[in-house]
Amino acid sequence: MTVANINVSETPLVLYALRRADDALILGHRLSELCGHAPMMEEDMALSNVALDLIGQARELYTYAAKVEGKDNDEDKLAYLRDVRQYRNLLLVEQPNGDFAQTLVRQFFYSAFADLYWRAMMNSRDTTLAAIAAKSEKETAYHLRHVSEWIIRLGDGTEESHARAQAAIDHLWAFTGEMFAVDDGERALIHAGIAIDPETLRGRWMTTLSDIVSEATLVLPQSDWMQQGGRSGRHSEHLGHLLSELQSMQRTFPGQTW
Amino acid sequence: MYTQALNTAEADDRNVEDAARAAQFQARIDAEERIEPNDWMPAAYRKTLTRQISQHAHSEIVGMLPEGNWITRAPSLRRKAALLAKVQDECGHGLYLYAAAETLGTSREELVDAMLAGKAKYSSIFNYPTLTWADIGTIGWLVDGAAIMNQIPLCRCSYGPYARAMIRVCKEESFHQRQGYEIMLTLCRGSDEQKAMAQEALDRWWWPVLMMFGPPDAASQHSDVSTKWKIKRFSNDELRQKFVDATVPQAQYLGLAIPDPGMTQDADRHWRYSEIDWTEFKQVLAGNGPCNRDRIAARRKAHDDGAWVREAAAAYAAKRAHRQTAQAAE
Questions:
Q1: How do residues A231-243 score in pLDDT, each as one tens digit?
Q2: What backbone phi and psi angles, to 5 degrees, belong to B35?
Q3: From the CA of A27, how many Å to the nearest CA of chain B?
Q4: CATH class entry, domain A12-252
Q5: Is the dihedral of CA B16, B18, B19, B24 positive or negative?
Q6: Once rounded to an integer, what is the mean pLDDT over residues A6-35?
Q7: Which of A22, A178, B122, B249 is 20 to 30 A off residue A63, Cα-Cα?
Q8: CB contact A215 to B (< 8 Å)
Q9: Does pTM top 0.80 for this prediction?
């Protein structure tokens, strides 16, 4: 009988790669749920593109995590055979698509961070992470441009779109703080020049957000209360449902090759 | 992904056209010249093509739904990415084809509205459900395989924009077909459970796929005009036979049984299939297939839910244009 969940030896570097892989997979999965259901065909194309980029990033990061771990895990075992408590993604990316404004604001908050993050990670002393960063940065720069244009359109579009965009910003804001959190393991990687300190990105991230949001005639919330927990496996209720769908084949037919 | 074989041409209204120009037009067709958007063409030619290309575009868009049904459940990350990319390709084909149809003078909005209102057809095959992962393999292998049979001749269609669109579409479809076959091969080399899943999917899809080529030639009254205009180059039955002949050895290689015990191979090496149940085909076309209502409902929901987004984009574009004009005036 195949084991239900795999064990992962979460050394700091494995965990570091896994967290970013989970971010990319879960957000890519969320976007892939929309394929065929977007508000316009052009967005079906664009959102699928973003999803494909993210799933591609996840695959590289999982493969690297598995290699660093050095056991017999691989990208699929890491994606399909960990339960909700073993997932390490940001709470932000697991939030449901909601209306199109929520989908876009979620993407906007994430891409505005990821764009700076991957650019900075190109200087990582870890050559694999630096290489993944170089590819991801190009993709993410495009995601940010695309989604920023939409935030402006929605904010400065109609009364309804403005209200929906503002509601999405207010709703998702509390999930942004987690992007800047660092634990002891990550602190050590930062000192070793393998990881970058996300705190160094905060100022530029805020500038990107403020510029776009004000052009969109929207406002950022004043509240600084932030939800935490995704990085250590304490998720929202949404992730379990996402995983039950994502993993259904591997759970129903364990140990087979597809 | 696919255009349903067209057998419902409108009444021929060429009698109102200039006879001399019509003759000249036919001479160009006969000389294998391409007709381009700004060229004179008979109204019926325009109407026939608008209908055929838009039906084809609708099929691509509706066709995203049965396969999209498995994107979130694909069994590996590689399969997930490949399926998502494939469904995205179908969307691209849809957009490309709507653009080709628009060159004939009808807007995409009008064409899409007709589909959402249930007035325009799309390929009957997409009214069947995808129940297991093997359906994704089977659709790639057989549905895309059948689409290729139909579309390769369309690359030489007399209408330039459609023919050119088909060249690109066919390249991608042939990639999809190989991808589908590779899924089937993996299943057939896998566990007994996986092999049974593959066989069961083939059992369900085989006959609906044969119906994709449209009614038998004997019952098909309107192909003559399309043939004369070199929109259609092979009859429904010719294409169906070609498809069956190509597919039987592929099934044999997989170790799967075609669900047609009466099938025999002639001395001329053609595989002769049993009688197709055209009642089922007619039922599905009439809206009574297993998923007709779900498909249209899903497209309408996406359209309705997206209305405020499209309105916002239009409102913003108008504001921006207004600001630019105001700026220029200063």
A1: 999 999 999 999 9
A2: -90, 130
A3: 12
A4: mainly alpha
A5: negative
A6: 97
A7: A178
A8: no
A9: yes
